[in-house]
Amino acid sequence: MSALRPGDVDAVWFDAGGVLVLPDPEVLGPLLAPYGGSSDVEHHRRAHYAGMAAKSRADSAEADWDVYDLAYVHAVGVDDDLVSRSARLLGRTRSADLWRWAIPDSVTALANLAARGVPMSVVSNAAGQIEWALAHAGVCSVDGRAGVAMRTIIDSHVVGVAKPDPAIFDFAAVAHTEHERSRIAYVGDSVTMDVNGSTAAGLRPILIDPFDDSPDAAAHRVSSLSEVVALFT
Ligand SMILES: [Mg+2]
User: Fold this and answer.
1) What is the DSSP letter of 17?
2) Residue 179 Cα, ligand 1 centroid: separation in angstroms?
3) How far apart, in whole angstroms, are the C-alpha atoms of residue 173 and residue 118?
4) Residue 194 Cα, ligand 1 centroid: separation in angstroms?
5) Position 208 in a domain
6) DSSP line for 130-145
7) Which has the closest alpha carbon to 16: 115, 98, 119, 117?
8) Which of 95, 113, 141 is the last residue of a domain?
9) 193 CA to middle of ligand 1, Å?
10) What is the domain range of residue 201?
């Protein structure tokens, strides 16, 4: 029973990477262009989800991005003989601070959820930067000074627990004591980290899967956050 219908959930929590922000395509485009990669932002958006699906299929550990990097450079079309070299460069360039490009559809959807009064929070595997980064990108903040207001923003580096360990969600739950776990949706872009972790925590998983990379995921799949808005009438 993974599909959700309007009225099934009362609150929604979000992963940050791949849900609210992407690794900055304005940086990665020029980085990979000399290897034949596209600089088109849309191709980089596609590449991120291809990478996440490949990472989950390989059951890579959270810190292991090798499979993601290969899928990413392949998806942006680097030259065949430069795949491993460009993937290595992408890996060496990985920085938590580059997860800063706000996904336009998500920003719009967050505003619509806020207008409906939906209680929201963020639970992210990050490096201590995510609360600042989301505010700086104008996506969201706990006090509502930047973007929409979140009840809490949990950063795994700060709390010392990371997905898929379901214990990380306990830190967000204290800001949602009136909500049953089974009526809280958790939106992520990783099957192994987000769907599995949130399911183990008793939440209702939603997978952002815009390119149908993971049709068998045990989650409510959406192509963008606008479909999450539709769950709140
Ligand atoms: Mg993510």
Assistant:
1) B
2) 23
3) 15
4) 7
5) yes
6) HHHHHHHTTSEESSSS
7) 98
8) 95
9) 8
10) 11-21+99-229
Residue 2 belongs to a domain? no
pLDDT for residue 75: 98
| pLDDT the model gives residue 155 | 98
How confident is the model at residue 2, as a pLDDT? 84
| Predicted local confidence at residue 51, as pLDDT | 98
Q: What is the pTM of this model?
A: 0.97
Structural domain ending residue among the three candidates 39, 69, 95: 95
Based on the number of CB atoms within 10 Å of its own CB, is 170 exposed (0-12), middle (13-18) or buried (19 or more)? middle
Q: Name every residue whose Cβ is closer than 8 Å to that of residue 34 and which is 6 or more positions away in sequence.
A: none
User: Do 149 and 196 belong to one domain?
Assistant: yes
Assigned domain for 1 exists: no
Task: State the distance from the centre of ligand 1 to the C-alpha of 148, rounded, in angstroms.
Answer: 19
Contact residues for 93 (Cβ-Cβ < 8 A; gap 6+): 28, 31
Residue type, 30: P
CA of 62 to the centre of ligand 1 (A): 10
Residue ranges, the chain, pLDDT below 50 = none
